[in-house]
């Protein structure tokens, strides 16, 4: 790895810790530079402003989550276990990095277009993974369904629907930590019921 790449990763790791603990508004470029003994000039060489660093940090986190999810589901023995493990990992990261995600609400309508694209990319990744898990379940005889891609899309739409329905009822844009707990609980119940409905008859004996 080139020296410049190492420095960029050090900055992103430091920024991730800061943003996750204090959020976007209460974090300064000076603090991040100080955490890794870099000059502010060097920090600005890689990232022109705090918002651009925040966007890159979100992408850095999403890549980290993706690698961890793939590693975790590779160790599962069934598609059902893998889907539930994916949701568990996803929920764990949302809770751990709550302040980082909450900062999106603070930015409001000024969220950069490339950040929207990164979130869309993350959702596409989830669709691909869940679709592949459903296909694996069909191939092994564990699950029965028609179009695994369509079923995966319905599953993910329903998961997101639980989130937005809770926000609509509570008339808020971003869930607080207690609301997250409620959403996670409902996601788990829904996933259990959904996957049970896809089980092949022989798999339930």
- Under the CATH scheme, the architecture is Orthogonal Bundle
Low-confidence stretches are none
Beta-strand segment tally: 0
Envelope shape: elongated
Amount of beta strand: under 5%
Largest sheet: none
CATH top-level class: Mainly Alpha
- Mean pLDDT across all amino acids: 84
Output the radius of gyration. Answer: 19 Å
What's the CATH topology label?
Tetracycline Repressor, domain 2
Write the element-wise H/E pattern from the N-terminal end onward: HHHHHHHHH
User: Structural class of the helix and strand makeup?
Assistant: mainly alpha
Q: How many separate domains make up the residues?
A: 1
Distance between the termini: 52 Å
CATH superfamily: Tetracycline Repressor, domain 2
Number of helices: 9
Q: Helical percent range? A: over 70%
DNA-binding region: 28-47
Domain HTH tetR-type: 5-65
Keywords: DNA-binding
GO molecular function: DNA-binding transcription factor activity; transcription cis-regulatory region binding
Provide an overview of this structure.
- By secondary structure, the chain is mainly α.
- It has a single domain, classed as Tetracycline Repressor, domain 2 (Orthogonal Bundle), CATH 1.10.357.10.
- It contains nine helices and no strands.
- Helix 1 crosses helix 4, helix 2 packs across helix 3 and helix 8 runs antiparallel to helix 9.
- The longest helix has 28 residues.
- It is elongated, with a radius of gyration of 19 Å.
């Amino acid at each position: 790895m080139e020296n410049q790449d190492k420095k960029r990763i050090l900055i992103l790791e430091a920024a991730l810790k800061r943003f996750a603990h204090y959020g976007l508004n209460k974090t300064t470029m000076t603090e991040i530079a100080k955490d890794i003994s870099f000059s502010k000039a060097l920090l600005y060489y890689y990232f022109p402003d705090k918002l651009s660093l925040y966007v890159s940090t979100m992408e850095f986190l999403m890549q980290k989550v993706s690698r961890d999810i793939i590693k975790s589901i590779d160790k599962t023995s069934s598609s059902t276990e893998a889907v539930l493990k994916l949701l568990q990992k996803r929920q764990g990261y949302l809770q751990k990095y709550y302040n980082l995600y909450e900062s999106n609400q603070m930015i409001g309508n000024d969220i950069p277009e490339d950040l929207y694209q990164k979130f869309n990319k993350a959702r596409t990744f989830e669709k691909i993974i869940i679709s592949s898990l459903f296909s694996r379940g069909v191939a092994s005889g564990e699950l029965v369904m028609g179009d695994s891609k369509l079923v995966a899309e319905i599953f993910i739409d329903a998961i997101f629907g639980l989130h937005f329905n809770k926000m609509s009822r509570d008339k808020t844009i971003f869930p607080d930590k207690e609301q997250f707990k409620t959403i996670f609980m409902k996601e788990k119940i829904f996933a259990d019921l959904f996957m049970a409905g896809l089980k092949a008859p022989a798999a339930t004996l």
